[in-house]
Amino acid sequence: MNNIGLIGLAVMGQNLARNIANKGYKISVYNRTTSVMEEFIAQHGSDNLQGQAELEDFVNSLETPRKIILLVKAGGAVDAVIEGLKPLLDKGDLIIDGGNSLYTDTQRRHKELKEEGFNFIGSGVSGGEEGALNGPSLMPGGDKDQWELIKPIWEDISARDFNGGPCTTYVGEDGAGHYVKMVHNGIEYGVMQIMAEGYEMLKTLYGLSADEIGEIFAKYNEGKLKSFLFEISVPVLTKKEDGVNLIDVILDKAGQKGTGRWTVIDALQRGVNLGTIEMSVEARVVSSHKERRTKLEPNFSKPEAKPSMTLEEFLPALEDAMYTSMLCSYAQGYDLIKTAAKEEEWNIDLAEVTRIWEGGCIIRAEILNFLHRAFENTTFDHMFEVKEVHEALKTSVPSLRKVAAEALLNGVPAHSMAASLTYFDAMTQARTSANMIQGLRDNFGAHTYERTDKEGSFHTEWNS
Fold it and tell me: Is 291 a catalytic residue?
């Protein structure tokens, strides 16, 4: 009998299955299109990796209680596979959704399956195709006793943190794992948009080629911006095809699968400010309107690029500006996780979440090294209170002001960098302009307001 099963043999499913088999576990695999399974087994099958053409045979090949990973498209496909499995399972068997499911779907499935006597875990999986094969970051949520059932496998197949520990942990109850993965992806949206804006500034303001920008990003990756995304940005910028840089002929329409948008929507519903992340989603939306942008461009002239800083002055300022903006993206994500954990009654350990993001996942970065240590030793309401973050921001925020202003004055869109600066200024300012909003609301709608000099709620007849 095999230790675990996996349904869904797209590239992520194939690589995760190979990872599990390579670590010494016996795994059965199944795919709705049998030819895909057969081709996969022909290439990678072994005593540890076996394919089944029939779903019933797949289920019967597993030791009990059965553990079955689903890596299928989020949404209705997950529900359809679960419905197909249920008649074949025994009470107490465990289904593990390893896709990018919306956390509320995970909460629903967890509740429904538990009522029917089955078990369910929603596990975030980050690291892309390479991570799935060589070690992802794994974020499981569900009943803790079911985590114990898969813990040895998850720890063996995951990436390693900065100290060599497994990049997985029990995240929390029901939908907590998929929620943390969703926010991880929101942070990822923010970081990538910040990098894209840095690329555009260097290209537009200073006329640098993709190869020259690649050299700059490679140097950035040797310092405080060291990260997986900066590492892979170098081949993205320097890859040649037919004698030209491939990046220069890629259409400027960014795709999205929904997790960033889900993060922003959830934050709005919970009343959490995600300025950096929200504008990164907005930037992708704007990018999708290629025809509209092309039609409008001739009607509006942009200022001639005349940067006030030399390139030598701009490069360290841009490094600081991107670093500050990325800290804002992480701060917003952590703020959202903390808020959701309280509202959903999830016991999420942010130090552990940070630790398991140190390896395997897309947003793994040097930043996480000090954040993990800080979170272990600090009780905080907001990440800006953490001493190391506070000190870093005091040094780097002035550069963000210069860089954002440089971009905006020269007609270069800076969605996430400008939003990061606004977020920083608003979050570190005791009194804002919201008193004006409250006065207006009370004037037209009698919505009332509070005062700084008296307790209670007040209404004024403003026009009498």
Answer: no
